[in-house]
């Protein structure tokens, strides 16, 4: 049987058939590989070999390496936003409670890999912004939007809500990067709590 590893989309090998109707599972396998290995030196051939998929299958399902990275990023981001939405639904409209619970959730070891992956993409986006225009939209702005909406629901005016959401996301991103780089969890946790205390009047203006 012809081997499809050279990218001929008209041929199908056993590995292509294996994933033919299992795209979500393929994405999960690729995501796990990328979280473990990173994206800077990512190549489709070793990725395919590791998860049992031919290059033909990967191209057929995702289009290209860059498109695969984008889908992995969106998958991870979607999980994080879903966590925010879940906490918000059970928080009775308390932004500070949501932010504390999210921070505690993100301290779990499985989230460390996700943040490292996002930080790696930040670096690539700074080096080659033309290749990562989607990154700012799918991660930077999309992280801001849920908190911005939540603040508006609390009665914060739209301009202030956007500024506060930008500030909070910047604090989370910066402190998490500090924690990953230094391993000084206690110092960073105290700094995060201090930031929430300082922001309390703005984040919950009607709950004094």
Describe this structure in words.
This protein has 208 residues and is an all-alpha fold. It has 2 domains: 60 residues, no CATH class; 134 residues, Orthogonal Bundle (Tetracycline Repressor, domain 2), CATH 1.10.357. The protein is 76% helix and 0% strand. It is built from 10 helices and no strands. α2 packs across α5 and α5 crosses α6. The radius of gyration is 20 Å and the shape is elongated. The N terminus is likely disordered.
Write the layout of secondary structure elements.
Blueprint: H1 14-19, H2 23-37, H3 44-51, H4 55-62, H5 65-89, H6 95-106, H7 109-127, H8 133-153, H9 158-182, H10 185-203
Helix pairs in contact: 2-3, 2-5, 5-6, 5-8, 6-10, 8-9, 9-10
**Mean of residue pLDDT values:** 82
Number of helices: 10
The CATH fourth-level homologous superfamily of the largest domain? Tetracycline Repressor, domain 2
Percent of residues in beta strands:
under 5%
- Quickly name the level 1 CATH class of the largest domain: Mainly Alpha
Distance between the termini: 72 Å
Given the helix and strand composition, which structural class is it?
mainly alpha
Write down how many β-strands occur, each being a DSSP E stretch of 2 or more residues: 0
What is the global morphology? Answer: elongated
What fold name goes in the CATH topology slot of the largest domain?
Answer: Tetracycline Repressor, domain 2
SSE topology string: HHHHHHHHHH
Q: Based on the structure given, which CATH architecture of the largest domain is correct?
A: Orthogonal Bundle
Low-confidence stretches: 1-12
Q: Tell me the radius of gyration.
A: 20 Å
The major sheet is characterized as: none
Helix content: over 70%
